[in-house]
Amino acid sequence: MNFTASQIAFIVNGKVEGDINASVNNFGKIEVAKQGEISFLSNPKYEEYLYTTNASIVLINESFVLKHPVTTTLIKVQDAYAAFAILLSKYQEIVAQSLVGIEQPSYISSSAIIGDKCYVAAFAYIGNNVKIGNNAKIFSGVVVGNNVVIGDNITLNAGVKIYNDCVIGNNVTIHSGTIIGSDGFGFAPMEDGSYKKIPQLGNVIIEDDVEIGSNATIDRATMGSTIIKKGAKLDNLIQVAHNVEIGVNTVIAAQTGISGSTKIGNSIICGGQVGIAGHLTIADGTKIGAQSGISKSILTAKSVNGTPLQDITASLRSQSVFKNLPALEKRIAELEKVIESLLVEK
Predict the structure, then answer these.
(1) 76: Cβ–Cβ under 8 A, 6 or more apart, which residues?
(2) What is the residue-level pLDDT of the chain in tens, covering all 346 positions?
(3) Are residues 230 and 289 in the same domain?
(4) Rounded to 5, what percent of the chain is helix, strand, coil?
(5) How far apart (Å, rounded) are the C-alpha atoms in residues 227 and 220?
(6) Which residue, among 196, 186, 188, 126, has the nearest Cα to 156 in the 3D structure?
């Protein structure tokens, strides 16, 4: 699938400098790109490669000033990184449009309703009373349980499992191995020391424009719903427990675990390997550093870090002091000797 520089410039609202008919059919990193590939330059660290790259087309910021001549065709845009992302998305969309139809062997219940222009790969399973919108892409090994409702333009990558009664909105992408709607971790302690399982009768609701990475687990609510709100982005290997709510446009990095009934606000940025205790509230706009441990609610937006949790500035100062502890210990020992000698002289 070939695209010319003029076609790409139209898509990304850019201006061509060079051959408007230069053609590409693939993407490449600027330092190793070949003829027929398109790349981009946004980080000054990679500027040197602009003058040696074999890429046929390179996207660059319109504010960029060339220091040497280039042999590649340039497309100048306001933000090269954002423009490249738009181009990748457009390419992915075109590729996805070619996937239509139902492959065999697959199982689709006679009571399931599937919209127009959908793709169901071989070895997928779609249960009773499932409703799937238009332009869905469902890959091999996906299991969609009974009574699940799925919107338009969704992508369920290989091996995704969606348990009964869950609801998935429009424009949602879920990556391989992720499980939606598994039982929440609910057990009641008995007098004899054993634990009795508490039935998990709720579901998971994933709103529009959400993306969830690979091998994440989102547990169904005990009662009611675990909710991932519009525009949220979850990385790989994230655990979301029962009755958790994750707010609009919140971003959570890999290996984070969120305990039951915690309410994560809107537009939160959460680093990787964060642990969040249960029944807490995290304020809109909070920024959480990687490997932080959150044991109490954060009621006003701020940047936090560390275990135990601290304000980001205090945490960084503490880390700075901590790494200097051996030197500080040595200085204290030297000062003690000086004090002792002064006392002896008196």
Answers:
(1) 14, 15, 17, 60, 61, 62, 64
(2) 789 999 999 999 999 999 999 999 999 999 999 999 999 999 999 999 999 999 999 999 999 999 999 999 999 999 999 999 999 988 888 877 778 999 999 999 999 999 999 999 999 999 999 999 999 999 999 999 999 999 999 999 999 999 999 999 999 999 999 999 999 999 999 999 999 999 999 999 999 999 999 999 999 999 999 999 999 999 999 999 999 999 999 999 999 999 999 999 999 999 999 999 999 999 999 999 999 999 999 999 999 998 877 787 877 787 778 788 888 888 888 888 888 888 776 6
(3) yes
(4) 20, 30, 50
(5) 9
(6) 126
Per the domain annotation, does 150 fall within a domain? no
Active-site position among 68, 175, 242, 279 = 242
Do 166 and 187 belong together in one domain? Answer: yes
- Quote the domain boundaries for residue 83: 3-97
Specify whether 242 is catalytic. Answer: yes
* Residues 337, 278 share a domain: no
Structural domain count, the chain: 3
Looking at the structure, tell me whether residues 250 and 299 fall in a common domain: yes
Same domain, 280 and 174: yes
**Whether residue 164 is found in the same domain as residue 299:** yes
CA-derived radius of gyration, the chain: 27
